[in-house]
Design goal:
The complex is a heterodimer of chains A (231) and B (165).
Chain A (H helix, E strand, L loop, with lengths): L3 E6 L2 E6 L4 H7 L23 E6 L2 E6 L10 E3 L3 H17 L4 H9 L19 H9 L6 E3 L6 E3 L14 H5 L23 H7 L10 H5 L10
Chain B lengths: L2 H8 L9 H12 L4 H11 L3 H10 L11 E6 L2 H5 L3 H11 L12 E6 L11 E3 L2 E3 L4 H26 L1
Parallel strand pairs in B: 1-2
Antiparallel strand pairs in B: 1-3, 3-4
Helix pairs in contact in B: 1-2, 2-3, 3-4
The chains are: A alpha+beta (231), B alpha+beta (165).
Amino acid sequence: MSDYVTLTINGSNIRVPKGTNVLDAALEYGICIPHLCHMSDLTPIGACRLCIVEVVENGKSEVTASCTLEAKEGMTILAHTDKILKARKNIAEMLVAEAPNSRAIQDVAVRCGVTEVRFPFRNKNCVLCGRCIRVCSEVWQANALGFVGRGKDRHVALPFHNRPEFCKRCWSCLEVCPMTITPCDGPMKEGEEYFCGKCESQLTMALGSIDTCVQCRLGAGFGCLRAEPEK
Amino acid sequence: MDIAQIDSILSSHAGKPDRLVEVLQDIQDIYNYLPEKALWKVSETLGAPVIEVFRVANFYKAFSLQQRGRHLITLCMGTACHVRGAPRFIDEIKGRLNINPGETSCDKSFTVETVNCVGACALGPVVIMNGEYHDHMTSLKLRKMIEETEEKDKENAINGEDKHS
């Protein structure tokens, strides 16, 4: 039994070790699927839904998050169909509405083709991506953070809302948080949120060269290359 | 707070994080709420991260992290009860005990909660007092019920004092 599987993403044959998820496989081969909550060292939880792809099976296609999808032999994945691009744009739009004070989210949204935000801004300063929680529990084994509450009240919290002794103050949670870098013009006031979109002009400049991203430091940090629609 | 009681609950569950909910239920039965100290102890003994214990305690409505009253009044706010005037009970309780739903009165005698439906719509408006269902409630009946409970409490307190002296 081989330890590798071969799958097709956007028409190209890709060979990856067994157990790899589709998102990592695509990124490794330079196919960009925008993502936010995924970090390669952490367990994928599929929270942001930006990395959705179409899985074609028996002539039927199903939309699902690629980070939680394990690569299987003979799988056919379409990452940039019209349907996906449209859905992804809507998801990015909602993420901006939820947390406009993040340059990372604003940038990802530009890359997904968002030009305006049609949803009311909620400015919750958190998109529940769970990066902080997973870094804390999986990398540092500290378990000082977690999701608390349910439904619309779900939020990231410390036990009993106090910093426990076993928090090692490594601040990895802040390092990986997409909210720590504000948009270029600084944090937005409540009621005055807007979609930044200033990098859009750079997006067309980057279109000519393969695999170059919009010139933003955060885009590199999130390993997010330019998403090119299939012609 | 008596820690010994918690020890007796925890003794058979040590090192078994999957028994978390059972343990929390038992603790809730004793104290009527989940004291923070007890939860730290639970986390330590079961070997579950304290954030997990906190998360579970927050997730279920059956658990309370705030101290609760001796008597629990549950008001049904389902459609049928609502139409027949259940919202008036909230005003009645607000006037009488000066607490909103979800809160506990200062003297720790009453906790008021609202629920969305108890499944007895034909008998509405329904009020549940310490697990006992009262049908066709009115503000007047509710006031009498609270007054009777308060009086009983007073009598018990006096009798209790007599026993001690």
